[in-house]
Amino acid sequence: MFKKTILTTTFAAVLAFSSQQANATIVLVETNMGDFEINLFDQTTPKTVTNFLNYVKDGSYDNVVFHRSVKDFVVQGGGFRYSGNNTSPFAAVATRGPVDNEPKLSNVRGTVAMAKVADSPNSATNQWFVNLGNNASNLDRQNSGFTVFGVVTGTGMSILDSIEDLYVPATGNFAGAPLRNYSATDLANNVALTASNLVVIEKITVINDSPTTAANLNPAPNTLAGQQTDSSSSGGGSMGSALLLALAGLAFWRRRKV
Predict the structure, then answer these.
(1) Reduced 3-state DSSP string for the chain
(2) Cα–Cα distance for residue pair 66/159, rounded to 1 Å
(3) Does pTM surpass 0.85?
(4) CA 179, 182, 185, 187 torsion: positive or negative?
(5) Which of 5, 24, 178, 241 would be a feasible disulfide site paired with 69, CB 3.0-4.6 Å?
(6) Residue 11 confidence class, pLDDT cut points 50, 70, 90
(7) For 108-125, how does the pLDDT look when each residue is reduced to its tens digit (9 = 90+)?
(8) What's the rounded Cα separation, in Å, for the pair 90 and 81?
(9) End-to-end CA distance of the chain
(10) What are 157-182's pLDDT values in tens digits?
(11) Can you list the domains of the chain with their CATH numbers?
């Protein structure tokens, strides 16, 4: 009876642990610029993947915008929807509590990582970004390292490269956001923007729920986490320091409300 109790308790503990793990590894991101897949690193960054999937499953990422694009650096989204009001165009998506930092993998091109608050390693909530270039020397150690929790696979980076090539205004209510079918000339002529000018993530869905699909991807490890870095080091683009990744979306929102 004692052995049976131990086995029953152990089995229950295993089930409880398993239920806390992310139960999907590939998601499809559908945008008005084309679709791409992200393979999630369930085994390596389980807390972050679970956090991301919670937002996926409750529809928090439906119709959010890519609110930030910096050439050769990142495209960032997950935190805002278009409000319909061009004076204050972005409405914040509700967030859950922050997730623990898991800086185990390197921020190389094509990887997907969580944005977070400056000088606060365990502050990531719903915003995420795709690395457009190799940002390992900067983001792998800055703010104790940015957690890479997935990678864009197949030909998906061609979609992100197309978004990167869009016009990004440096000033105005849409500053920092990539814009479709809109130019600096349009901005100078005060041409009104519409929802169709924004890059919208229409929805994100799970398309493969196997927790082992990342087994053959061989992601690069983060060997720099914990090392000191100069917080003023530039990440390029109109936003200045790469440290602004930390609260880029929220800072963007505050500036629009002023």
Answers:
(1) CHHHHHHHHHHHHHHHHHHHCCCCCEEEEEEECEEEEEEECCCCCHHHHHHHHHHHHCCCCCCEEEEEEECCCEEEECCEEECCCCCCCEEECCCCCCECCCCCECCCCCEEEECCCCCCCCCECCCEEEECCCCHHHHCCHHHCCCEEEEECCCCHHHHHHHHCCECCCCCCCCCCCECCCCHHHHHCCCCCCHHHECEEEEEEEEECCCCCCCCCCCCECCCCCCCCCCCCECCCCCCEHHHHCCHHHHHHHHHHC
(2) 13
(3) no
(4) negative
(5) 178
(6) very low
(7) 999 999 999 999 999 999
(8) 6
(9) 68
(10) 999 999 999 999 999 999 999 999 99
(11) 29-257 (2.40.100.10)
pLDDT digits (tens, 9 = 90+) for 34-51: 999 999 999 999 999 999
Structure-token match 């929102």, residue found: 253
Cα dihedral sign, 180-181-187-191 = negative
Residue 69 identity: S
164-180 as b/e: b if 16+ CB within 10 A: bebbbbeeeebbbbbbb
Structure tokens at 57: 């499953």
Contacting residues for 202 by C-beta, under 8 A, at least 6 apart: 30, 31, 32, 62, 63
Specify the residue for token string 């944005």: 115
